[in-house]
Write a structure and sequence with these properties.
Length: about 475
């Protein structure tokens, strides 16, 4: 190689060295992956396709199936807890109006008519007497009454919020009971399907035993499995009756059947933090706690105002006849400003003020406890919902696989290439997969409803 060529090659290497070093230091570029598809959320309507369920599951009688929306409306209207909370709210509203009345004009009239005996050393008189008066008063400055009115306003608002909370809790309890009835009824239906499959297998094995192609022990093994399924069905019917009775207590109606439709899909925030943000403004228990804290502060100010003077105006008109025992008539009309200054009350007002301060601090501590519990319930519900969503894909795949295994093992048993125990085990696994699908779907629905209740959105599913 000539000298000029060597110099040119060295210059090229010196220029490329920094770029080569930077390339070695940087990690290799990774191809952008496609975003993962969002996992399908469990839905009650999917049970028809996955399990081959009819659109309506009969419970009793031949009437129309009860929709979840109708059940919620009936529970809203007929719940004794909702009625009690409504009357409680009405009571607080009238108490609020009574507190406002202390700031409004007050008119009092007094009428007295009779006879009197008047005696002096000179004379004795028995005269008719009359004493009439009317007093119109209006408070001008009364901080105690004003703060008490504010307190009753806050308590009335708290009672209204508590009514909304009771309504939401009633809807949650009714929806949870509806899903429990659905789970037990589907479980009974799946138990009948499992029993029918075993009976079909029992008939096949019985024919083989009669032909000498199988031992009687195999038939008895299937008979024992059928008896076990029937025992489980008895427990399932009892659980269904208990769940149905609980649903009747909440909704005041006995449904003829349940529809496997998509019942009232609910809007849910993205995560627990977003749900907590909505709960701060929509959760009835948290709102009520804040209002009660403000009411306790208003009560403290009312007790502190007991040390302040009160100013009022009074218009008085009085008329009496023979009031002094002698024949005379008097009329008196006056307008006066009345200033009342509290001086001493044995320390009662001060003690009441300190008591309300302690009560306010207690409510603040309880409010913090409520906030923490709501946050914990939201995080738990979202964790359970995520787990149910993740399990849903797995149990669907497991169900499909077990269904194929049953079909294959049944064909192999007919051909004499599969043991009876393998077929029975495949049947049992298929039945358990179906129950797992139902459990996951119901669990997801119940957690969705609980999240909606905690955020205050559940009442929106029922129109008043």
């Amino acid at each position: 190689m000539s000298l000029p060529l060597r110099r040119w090659s060295g210059s090229v290497l010196l220029c490329l060295a920094p770029a080569w070093a930077a390339a070695q230091a940087e990690p290799p570029a990774v191809a952008a992956s496609a975003p993962a598809a969002e996992a399908a959320r469990p839905r009650v309507a999917s049970l028809q396709q996955l399990l081959g369920m009819p659109p309506v599951l009969a419970l009793s009688g031949n009437g129309p199936a009860l929709s979840l929306g109708d059940a919620l409306q009936l529970a809203w209207q007929n719940s004794p807890e909702v009625a009690a909370a409504r009357f409680r709210s009405e009571s607080f509203d009238y108490t609020r109006k009574a507190a406002r009345g202390a700031l409004l004009p007050r008119l009092e009239a007094r009428f007295a008519v009779g006879r009197g005996h008047f005696e002096t050393p000179d004379r004795k008189d028995n005269l008719g007497r009359a004493d009439h008066s009317a007093v119109l008063s209006q408070a001008l400055v009364d901080e105690t009454a004003r703060h008490e009115w504010t307190r009753q306003e806050l308590l009335a608002a708290s009672a209204e919020v508590q009514l909304a909370g009771v309504e939401s809790q009633t809807l949650l309890d009714t929806g949870t009971a509806w899903f429990a009835v659905l789970q037990q009824r589907v479980g009974v239906e799946l138990g009948h399907t499992y029993e029918a499959s075993l009976n079909e297998l029992l008939r096949y094995i019985s024919d083989r035993v009669a032909a000498g192609g199988a031992s009687p022990a195999e038939r008895e093994r299937i008979t024992a499995r059928v008896a076990n399924v029937r025992s489980g069905l008895a427990d399932s019917r009892a659980a269904l009756a208990a769940a149905l009775r609980n649903f009747q207590r909440l909704s005041s109606v006995a449904p003829f059947g349940l529809a496997l439709d998509a019942p009232l899909d609910l809007y849910l925030p993205a995560d627990a933090d977003a749900a907590m943000t909505e709960a701060e403004a929509g959760n009835a228990e948290m709102q009520s706690s804040r209002l009660e804290q403000q009411a306790a502060e208003a009560e403290r100010r009312s007790n502190r105002s007991a040390f302040l003077p009160r100013l009022a105006v009074e218009l008085t008109h009085s008329q009496n006849r023979n009031a002094a025992g002698t024949e005379a008539q008097q009329r008196d009309s006056k307008a006066m400003l009345v200033l009342t200054v509290p001086l001493a009350n044995g320390g009662a007002d001060y003690a009441r003020m300190r008591a309300t301060e302690a009560r306010r601090n207690e409510l603040e501590a309880r409010g913090e406890g409520v906030r923490r519990r709501v946050l914990q319930d939201l995080e738990t519900s979202y964790a359970n919902l995520r787990a149910a969503t993740e399990r849903y894909a797995s149990v669907r795949d497991e169900l499909e696989a077990n269904r194929k295994v049953v079909d294959a093992f049944r064909a192999q048993l007919t051909g004499g290439n599969r043991q009876l125990l393998d077929v029975l085990d495949a049947y049992q696994r298929l039945h358990q997969s179906r129950l797992d699908v139902v459990q996951v779907v119901v669990s997801a629905a119940q957690n969705e409803w609980r999240i909606a209740h905690l955020t205050g959105a559940l009442r929106q599913v029922v129109a008043r």
